[in-house]
Structures are given as C-alpha cells and as structure tokens.
Amino acid sequence: MLDLRRLRYFVTVAEELHFGRAAVRLNIAQPPLTRHIAALEAELGIRLFERSTRAVKLTPEGIVFLERARSVLHAAGEAQATARKLAQGVTGRIAIGYTSSIPMSDAFAEIVRNAGRVLPEVELTFREAATASQHRQIVEGTLDIGFGWSAVNALDDGLCSLVIAREPLVAAVPSGSVHARKKSLAFAELRDETFLILPPGYGSALTAALDSLCAQAGVEPRIGPTASQTATLVSLVAAERGVAIVPAFTVALQRSGVAYVPLSDAPALEQTVSWIEPFTSICVERFVELARLVAQRETRGT
C-alpha cells in the first residue's frame, strides 16, 4: 500500500521541481526528502524525476503519476473530512419512523425543521409505522428515531422515550351529525355511533385510547371500515361512514363534511420521540438533543 506521506512529498517536489524548496515547504530536511522519493520510485518500479546538477523535471511516467497522486490525496482528504464530520455528528443518515397522524403535529414539524437547519448535511429518511412497530424496529436497528405515542408498549432493551407534546383527543363527526353543533361532548354520547379505526393489529395508540374510553364509559363499540391513514379516516367521516377519535391537531385537515368536537372526558395523548441507547451515531444523539429542547418547553408549559 502506498504511503500517503510519500505521495504528498512527491506532489510537492513535482510542483516545485526543486528538492530544496520542496523541503522548506514540507518543513523537513532535504536528505530525508530525497530518500523518501527514491523509496517511492523503488516501490513503484519507475523513475519519477530526471535529476541533473542544474534542474529537476518530471519523467513522462512522473507526469502521469502526478495526476493520479493528486487524485488519491484529494480523496484521502475528503475521507478524512467526512470522518471528522461523522465524529462531530454533522453528517450521516437518520432513519425516522412516524405514525400516520404525527406529521400534522407542530412538535414533529419543529424538530425536523430544526434538524434541517442545525444538521444540514445529515440525510433524514422517513418511514410510516405504528408506535409498537417503531419500537421493535429501533431495537432491531432498522430505525434510529421513532415519533409516536406513549400509550403503546412498555419500553425495554435500552429503548428510551421522551414526551415532546400532549395532544387532546377530539371526535371527528359528519357535519350533519347532531354532535357537530356541540362545543364539546362526553365520550358516552357517542355510544350509538359507528367507529372508524386503524386496522386491527396495527398497534395504534388511538385504537388503544378508544378501547380505554369505551371501557370507562361502558360502551360496546360498533366498528366500521378501517384505514391505515388518519387522513383516510377523516375522509370516511366526510362520507358519513362513522366517527373517528383523533388527535386535536387533525383539525388542520379541514375536510368539507367533517366537524371536530372536543371530548370533555378524554385524557390527552403523550406524543413521544423514541431511540435506543447507547446512541447508534453522534448525529442521532444531536437529533435527540433537538427533541429535548422541545420537550423542555412542553414541561415548562404544563
């Protein structure tokens, strides 16, 4: 394997075409520099310079090798710079999971926006997954970060979770419903409605919240069509196929034919960011630091 130091010595001599001046640039004595160039020529099996008492010039082989040597040194420099950035957490890749409703939240948007500003060279990739699935994938190493809800799954295997927001629940009801004109309602008032939910086995915190509300109110829910996207559930509400229990930020989906009514007796869902420790990379650690800033503001506001 070629010695990068000798390549740098060779390029400097090739640029100066004078061993004395090259030695000054490299801050070494001339005799060692001469020996390094001779060793490089011996290793390559070619002469790189023609030397005389009056001049030093590159051989034809040296001219060709100079271009390649510069390319190698440039690539080595870029690799070293990349390694430094990786060590500082300013470059890399973060795989992020999110539940279908999370992208509508202000906390999600703020953290991702800040990551783009603070870590512009870090590539963020996004994958939709239920909270329970996110936790499994983080432990397995296929996801680095998960945006979900704390109502699902116990955290283990080094998995950590941070509450970044608390989101009230609302009922999305058809605008022609008797409930649509109310300022708020108790969950038991929905006992005769058909509920639209995410698919069974999806691991949804919203479905878990609905089950809890039904148990507390003594309601035996009638389940209607299912859909894997919160936006699709809202569309089904507009089509008068039932009602849906959704986070309050879903109000941003202003669909014609849908009204959002606050639930007076439903606890807020805790929106979380999850990761595993030890951190999978420095850039993941820095991303979590950005999430902590949002979480601290949430804590101060409660």
Using brief descriptors, characterize the structure shown.
302 residues, alpha/beta, Arc Repressor Mutant, subunit A, D-Maltodextrin-Binding Protein, domain 2, five-stranded mixed β-sheet, 9 helices, 43% helix
Write up what this structure looks like:
By secondary structure, the protein is an alpha/beta fold. It contains nine helices and twelve strands. It has three domains: 4-88, Winged helix-like DNA-binding domain superfamily/Winged helix DNA-binding domain (Arc Repressor Mutant, subunit A), CATH 1.10.10; 91-166 and 270-301, Periplasmic binding protein-like II (D-Maltodextrin-Binding Protein, domain 2, 3-Layer(aba) Sandwich), CATH 3.40.190.10; 169-267, Periplasmic binding protein-like II (D-Maltodextrin-Binding Protein, domain 2), CATH 3.40.190.10. 43% of the residues lie in helices and 23% in strands. Helix 1 packs across helix 3 (30-44). Keywords: DNA-binding, Transcription, Transcription regulation. One of its GO terms (molecular function) is DNA binding. It comes from Paraburkholderia acidiphila. One of its GO terms (cellular component) is protein-DNA complex.
Largest sheet: 5 strands, mixed
Radius of gyration: 31 Å
Taken together, the total number of domains comes to 3
How confident is the prediction overall: mean pLDDT?
Answer: 89
Beta strand count: 12
Overall CATH class of the largest domain = Alpha Beta
Kindly name the structural category.
alpha/beta
- CATH third-level topology of the largest domain: D-Maltodextrin-Binding Protein, domain 2
Q: Walk across the major sheet and give the strand order.
A: 4-3-5-12-6
SSE string, helix = H, strand = E? HHHEEHEHEHEEEEHEHEEEH
What's the N-to-C terminus distance? 61 Å
Percent of residues in helices comes to: 40-55%
Shape: rod-shaped
Q: Which architecture of the largest domain does the CATH hierarchy give at level 2? A: 3-Layer(aba) Sandwich
Number of helices: 9
CATH superfamily of the largest domain: Periplasmic binding protein-like II
Outline the low-pLDDT stretches: none
Strand content: 15-25%
